[in-house]
User: Fold this.
Amino acid sequence: MAAYEAWLAQARSALWFVRVRAGQELSFHAGRREVDAVLRQLLADPADATVVARTADALLRSRDCAALRVFAAAWPEAQPAHAGQLGAALAEACRAPEDARRLAAGVRQLMTDGDERVRRGAALLADRVAADSPR
Assistant:
């Protein structure tokens, strides 16, 4: 069994704090189809905003293009109830100039991704990253 498979099961837990931990751990394994699908579900968790916020934070802190790709795919599909958590995570990730530059570069790269959801999300994120970046 792969290291991330137990976390895939934990992501379906009824307990919010277990889903938070699953999102944090799965962020290290972004780039695998089944992991990415579960991470997108956690970014739209209907039961708890904390799950959304902490999963988003973990993805953006990972400094990994695969993790940013999951976030970008979820961005345009975010329900109003979750958009605040995703936006807050993005603003926090852009606080340091070097982090904002890294995110901007990653978003530019994703604008040519093969997945339409990712491209659309990256296009929307480009403006938001620019707005959230320190001046």
Q: What stands out?
A: Residues 57 and 89 are 5 Å apart (CA to CA).
